[in-house]
Structure formats: structure tokens, C-alpha cells
Amino acid sequence: MRTVLTILIAACALLPRPAAAQTTPALTLNYTEFKLPNGMTVILHEDHSTPMVSVNVWHNVGSARERPGRTGFAHLFEHLMFMGSGHVKTGLFDELLEGVGGTDNASTGNDTTNYWINVPSNALELALYLESDRLGYLLDSMTPQIVDAQRDVVKNERRQRYENVPYGMAQVTLGEMLYPEGHPYHWPVIGYMPDLTAASYDDVVAFFKKYYSPANSSLAIAGDIDPAVARKLVEKWFSDVKPGAAAEPITIPGVSLTGVQKRTITDRVQLPRLYLAWLTPAFLTPGDSALDVLANVLAGGRNSRLYRRLVYDQQIAQQVSARQQSQNLGSQFVIEVTPRPGHTPEEIKAIIDEEITKLQQADPSDHEVQRAVNQFEASYYDRLEQVGGFGGKADQLNGYFIRTGDPDYFAEDVARYTSLAPSDIRAVALNFLPLDRRVELTVVPEGSR
Amino acid sequence: MKRTHLFAAFAIAATVALGAQTQAPDRSKPPAIGPAPQVKLPAIQKTKLSNGVPVWIVEMHKVPVVQVNLLVLSGSSDEPAGKYGIASLAASMLQDGAATRSALDIADAVDFLGADLSTTAGIDSTGIRLHATVAKLADALPIMADVALRPTFPQAELDRVRQQRLTSIAQARDSAETVAQLAFARVLFGQQHRFGTATLGTSDTIKSFTVADLRAYYQSVYRPEKSVLLVVGDVTASKVLPLLEAQFGKWTAPQTTPAPHVTLPAPPARTARGVYIVDKPGAAQSQIRIGMVGVPRSTPDYFPIQVMNTVLGGSFQSRLNMNLREKHGYTYGASSQFDMRVAAGPFVATAGVQTDKTADALKEFFNELAGIHQPVAADELTRAKNYITLRFPERFEATADISAQLESLIVYQLPDDYFSKYVANVQAVTAGDVKRTADAYVTPDKMAVVIVGDQKVIEPGIRALDLGPITTMTTDEIFGKP
After folding, report:
1. B111 and A303 in contact by Cβ < 8 A?
2. Concatenated DSSP letters for A223-249?
3. pTM as predicted
4. Domain encompassing residue A371
5. In terms of domains, do A120 and A232 share one?
6. A286 and A360 together in one domain
7. B23 touches chain A (CB under 8 A)
8. Confidence at residue B23, expressed as pLDDT on a 0 to 100 scale
9. Domain count, chain B
């Protein structure tokens, strides 16, 4: 596979701007996929270059499934998944793993929750034992005391990662401003303190039964495995995990902004910061990748339009960034800028608007677009270097499967970028970044309001 | 027929039940696992360019990417007094003009190749590091070589970067974690020792640097005799060596005197425990740093210390994390580490704890810092050693992982058999070694305790613990006047 890949890239290097089909090298991963009788999808990928294996599970549930008054619950629940299960005493999950050189972690988003365990390849069966036991028997050992203990930890996670971090509450506020009350993206994944306090043992039981069923999950194993052996072990350890229903898709009415929504919050910071945000197309839907490229044209690297003008040439801003934050129900495009001392958010906003307007009126240059596309394209190779952890191959196979049904969606994903033309970038700037329908959040230093 | 039929039905049922039974896993105990896999160590091909610059190559034919690092064996440790921050500034400014390329040209060319070029000074070394797809390597190397060998340090760029850095230093006061880290460094090492001041330098030094300073610094530090090239990735030595020779082989040392390696002064001696509070009114958490000056990377106790620290605060299952996070819920995570450099760096135990539990958390920190002097249980020792040794293969997975491992061999002058003996060296650590190194390097009654938090709320509880004299520090003392 590698040889073919290299040849294709070399061929591409000779062409100044080849057609889409030619710019996309055959980026692909070999895998086998099967379904267990209980409804769980399993994806296996063999890579013997390092004697380690990653066991990765995605559950099709995130904070968007939470009910009012219980925000932050999907993430609190994620913590409970490490606290033992029917046959694994509290504390033993990590103790067993560390004893064989294993590491683990998980993350919760708006849409999904993903877990991984990295182990040396001889300990694959132990990882499957632990993973299957918590999916099959979590509630057998769950107690209100365990919930209380992790509730305190999660509250401290909120303090450490949001409340006690400069500008940490801006992301929370942006969600509240962009999405109306009741929309599943209105509240933050980390949740609100009173809701974390209110979360109960009964909530854990209900949430587990509703969302942590095999049909609502997929398992990817990547690394130093013999797929036939790995399959037998998976069948052995997940055979007694009871089936359940897959979660119904979330149906919500589309949202849009009708005008400019402004808010100012204070923080203990030296400099103000301005956030401009828009509602944009969902992950993998038309416009999503063009918005990624637009973000790069605006603020990716020194030659991007905003960086160059605000930070490099005029030196009136300390930093500027732009990003398309892609999610399943809809995305958000956020520009963030920190004015230098002596300059105001208003002054900088006028320049940002000028640059957005230019991109709405004329296509960016071929060079700007190609520069961005080349960076996206190269990043796909870097993503193949690791089998485990967040963003490793197991995680990506699962992520693609959950979102598209196709674990090996690499080539299609890259093609979303390589097929773009400058006019596509202008089109998304025009369609999705209207200056008169957006959120404007300003963080100002305490005492300066 | 009936009977036969019945019998057959029974037989089928039995088979199903038996099948289910043989498949239903025995969960009463964890599955036994086989022997750990052999570590596959990278084969390092060592050679030299015609100018004597050593080249280390690791071929890794997995993904068509390559990492090329030019490692310069000098970092912020070698900065003379009054020039704190020049290593970091010079490294960063390599990309702000080189040969005939402008700062914008360099960034555009690198970005267009989809490559990544970083130039950063560490404490003991400086790296010019290129990551690119193999197809773009030949295009990217000349840019890397210009940046590394022919930087121009334009005045206008210095003026720009200076303002950028002064603003960064001002903003550093916003982050409780940054303030805690720098306050802790200042308390342990003082103003006279390089480790007591941020790598970036101070507002005063940043204001003072001139283009002439940068050029002189560059000439004295960036020299072929202080440099090593590392290549890791999907290339062969025979193909990549001519490229390296063409770009770096003609590099010669300038006629100027090379910078001497600075021997750092001894840090101020600590004779008693002391508490240092930096006020952050309204803070939701207190950022705690507890520790003392640790050991240099060359310590003969390297392996016992790794094991001892893994037990204390080096993994999720470590005592500090299990106590402060899992048992008490005071924090999102507690840990400890020995930051080993060419000279002795700090030993530090760390956590961010909720404000109203600050004193309770300090008490538990000191319980664990005392407890590590008791004999470690056999199973805990085994788990710690396994945790270190069995994760060893992960360090050789990605190109950047391997190049980082090679860098550490070079910077800390580790022996050629360092990797191959690593596992055995860790496994040889005994409970006695753990106690001995805890006694030698973890002495709680001489530690500095730095807390960044809401002083009004936390001070009475801290005072009641009677840990030692309490000093209030200001951010100006830590960062210098803005």
C-alpha cells in the first residue's frame, strides 16, 4: 500500500494544479468489519510496526442527549465508566491496566463519547475483558458513593479547565448565544454546577440503559493483532453483553440567527478579546470543508489575510484565529482576536469585516486555496502515524464509521478538500458569514467595563 | 421416530447450550496474559557529513512522512546573566528572514508544502525541526537550511517580535498555572540561577536585545561542531544523505569564539520549609506546587527515581492522584515529577484544587510525601515497574517520538546501549532503592510550597497547618515590572 501511495504523491508533485481525482492519493487503511449478534460493530486494523494495540470504543451519545437540569451528565457518566463494573472492583480498572503497561482515556463531545485503552499486544485480552465488562455489567457495581466521588472530580475539572482559565468561560457563553434555549448545543459539554450537583444514581441507571447498548456503540481495534485471533477474543468477551436498542437520531428544527447578538463578559485578564461566531453547515455536509479552508485563508499562518494584516503588518492584535468547529447537528465558525494594548475590539472588528467582505466579493487566489488544501492533505498522513490514543488510527476508523458508516473514509474525506475551487471559498463566505447575522462576544478585563 | 426426533432436538439444544457455555467468558478473574512482546528498537545508522556534522538516520517505512531535526547543543541554560531570553528569541527569529527569503516568504513556502518547521530553544538544546511528507522533503530542506544556517535577523522583525513577546509576558499573569510554575521556579532557584526565570526572559531583557546581540549570539552558538542532524522516516540513508550533504555539508564554523558552556551556580540552599502565596482573588481553584531542587539527568539514581516517582505521582494510579482525586475529590488530577536537565531541575508535586479544600489538600500532599519513605509493597512496586517498562515501545511509534528519543540520547550523553538496557535497568529497582531515593530526594520538611489562589479565603487554613513561614509574592516579583 505504502509504495502505491508514494508513487501517487510523486506524480502529483509534478502537476501544478491537477484535477481532483489526481490530487487525492489512495489514502486508505485495510480493515475488516463485522457485527456481533448483540448488534455491536467491530472494526479490526492490523499494523505490526509497534508491539501495541489500541482498543477503541465510540458510543453514539454526547451532551446533546442530556435533558434539562442534567447538563454535563454525559461527561460525568464517562468518568463513571472507569470506576469498575460487575467483575472489576472499584479501582481495579486502572490498577490492572497499569500493571500490564496500559493507559486509557476518554472524551465526551456534543455528539459522541469515545474511549480508548492502549496496551502492549500481549494484553489485548485484558483490555477486552475490561471493556466488555463495563459495557455489560457497569451497573452491577455502581453506587451513589461512586457517583458522588466522580461528581466532585468533574466539578474540579470544570473549575480547572473553564472557570480558572483566562477566557475560559467564553466558549460556554458562545454556545448559549448561538443556540436557542432547549437546543442541544445550547449548554456546554462540561455542564452547569447545579446540574452536576443534581445528577443522581438513578440518572446513571437510566442513561446507561438507554445509550450504552452494543447497537449504539462500535469497537475498533488497531495495532499488533492477528485479526482472526482478535475476532475470537472479541466474540468471547462481548458474547454475554446483552443487546439493546440503538438510540433514535436526534431531530431538531434547524436554527438560524436573525440579527447581531452582542454580549460582553468580564474576566481577570490583561487584554480584551473579541469572538465573532456564525452557525454553519454540519460536519461532512456541503460547505463544511470549504469553511475549513476559509478559516485557513483568514487566519491560518502568517500569510493569511487577518494574521498578516492585524498581527504582522499593523501589529494591533496579539493573536487571531479562525476555525470551523464541525459537529453533527450543525457547526459553528468562530473568529477570535486579542487586541494589543491601546487598541479596541471595535477597531479590529471593522478590519475583520472588511476582510470578510473582500472574500465575499472576490475569490481568494489559487495560491491561497492550494496552500490551505496542501496543509489539510499533508495532515492526513500524520494522522496515520499512531494506532492508539485520541486521533490514532483506531479512533479515526471508529469516528468515520459512526459518522459515515464507512471506517475507511480517509480518501473521501481528503477529497472534500482537494476538490475545492476558489469560488467555493467565496461562496461559503457569502452564504454563511453574513455580517448582520452573527454573535459578537467581547471579554473585557475586570474593572474596565 | 418421535424418540429419535426428540433425541436429535435434545442434541441440538445441548450443542447450543454447550456452545454458549464454551463461549460465555469466565469473568471471575482477569484473563491471564502471555509474555510481553519484544521491544523493537530503531536501528540507528550513524554517519557524518563532509564538514563533520554527525548524522543519525532511522528508516521507518510505515507512513510516507519524515522528520529532520538539526539539534544544536546549547539552550537557555547557557545564556549569560543579563541575556535571559536570547536563546528563545534567536531561535524563534530564525524564521523571520534567512538568506534572500523574508519572514513571509518562509512561512508561505513551508505552508504551501504542507510541511511543519519549528525553531525553538529548550533549556539544554535548540532544535530546528522539519516534518514533511517524503514527496516534499527535497523542496523543504533548502528552506530549513536557509533558516538554520543563514538567518538575517532584520531590525523590523526584531521590533515586531519584541512587542509580541512583551505582550505575551504581560498576558502570562492571567494564567494561574503559569504564575504557579514561574513562582515555584523563582522560589527554588532565585534570580541568579537561570532556572529561576522564564525561558522567554523578562520584560527588561526583551527590551534590551539588539540585532547585534542576536547576530553575535547566533555566531557563537549555531555552529557545526555543536550540531547533530537526525532523520527519522520513510527514507533510505542512501537517498537522504546526498540531500543533507548538499544543504548542510558546506556549513563551516565562523571565525568567532564559540559560546562557552555555562556551569550554572548552585541553587540557594533550602534549610526549612516555606509557604509562598500569590493572590488571585476570586479564583475557583488554588494551583499548588510543592517541591525542591531535584537531580540532574546524569544522576546514577535515574531508574530508582523513575520507579519511586511513578508510585508517588507518576501515573493515574499513583498515590497522589488516588488520594487527592479519587478518594477526596479535591482535584481533577494530582501528580509529581522530577524534571531532569543537564543541571539539576526541580522535583515538583502538582495539583489544582478547589479553593475551599486548599488546606485539606495540602495536608494530603504531605501525607503522601511522608508515606513514600515507608517501604513500598511488592505488588505496588511491580505495577510501577511494569507501567514504565511495558509502555516503553510507545516511545518509538511515530517519527517525532523516535527523533525525540534520539535527541535525549545526544543531549544527555546517554550510552549507546541505553535503550537496550532500559527495561532491565528499571526491572532491577528494588524496594530498598525506592526508599533510599525517597529519603535522598524527597524531603518534605525542606520543601517550598507555592500556592496561587484566593489568599483571603485560603490563608487562614494554610496558617493553621503550620507548614512554615508564609510569604506573599506579587506577580511583579515573578515577572518583573511590566
Report:
1. yes
2. ES--HHHHHHHHHHHHTTSPP-PPPPP
3. 0.93
4. 260-445
5. yes
6. yes
7. yes
8. 58
9. 2
